[in-house]
Amino acid sequence: MSTGTLALIIIVIVVVLAVAVIGLYNNLVKLRNRVDNAWAQVDVQMQRRQDLIPNLVETVKGYAAHESGTLQAVTDARAAVGQASTPQAKMQAENALTGALRSLFAVAEAYPDLKANANFQQLQAQLADTEDKISYMRQSYNDTVMTYNTAIQTFPAVLLAGAFGFTQRPSFDAAAGAEVAPEVRF
Asked: Which of 57, 59, 81 is nearest to 69 (CA)?
């Protein structure tokens, strides 16, 4: 085998490896961007819920003024979501908000006039719809995170993912007691 042929083989091997690394890197970027997009979709739905809560609290205040502890818990939980700066912190704050909303709806059960109020019913229906969308978006986010995490943990990407700055992302885990859905009655 001549020196020229050996040099050509080495060049071809280097080019093939470079193309493979570029393809691997681009795939990991694509998957990371999908995770970021999936989180953004969860965040949009959580913001929608955030926007509905003040109206819901104000409606309940008119009927259940002495339930200030429950109303304050919802307000505080909503504020905690707004102050959360990382996806993980936001996930925890959202789980606390879901629990506070459960308490608010339990309070509403004790006030038949409130349950019959058209504004309250509309807000409750919008919130239930938003909760369904949040649940779907969380599932989509978790599926996307699983795909991404699997990609960076499998061979050959595992050899390069860390060097390129690709790190594992957390799933959106439900809080304890979340297996019981908020009860919404009309």
From this structure: 57
For the chain of 186 residues, list the mean pLDDT of each consecutive stretch of 10.
88 94 95 94 87 81 70 85 85 84 78 74 84 89 95 92 92 63 45
In terms of C-beta distances under 8 Å and separation of at least 24 residues, what long-range contacts does 103-111 make, across chains too? Answer: 103/70, 103/73, 103/74, 104/56, 104/57, 104/60, 104/70, 104/71, 104/74, 105/182, 105/183, 105/184, 106/183, 107/60, 107/64, 107/67, 107/70, 108/60, 108/64, 109/185, 110/64, 111/63, 111/64
State the pLDDT at residue 58: 79
DSSP state of 173: P
Other beta carbons within 10 angstroms of residue 123's beta carbon come to 19
pLDDT given for residue 71 in this prediction: 79
Q: How far, in Å, CA of 87 to CA of 150, rounded?
A: 20
Q: How far is CA 39 from the centre of its chain?
A: 5
Q: How far apart are the first and last CA of the chain?
A: 84
For residues 141 and 143, give the distance between their C-alpha atoms in angstroms, rounded to a whole number. Answer: 5
Neighbour count for residue 50 (Cβ, 10 Å) = 17
**How far apart are alpha carbons 84 and 39 in whole angstroms?**
14
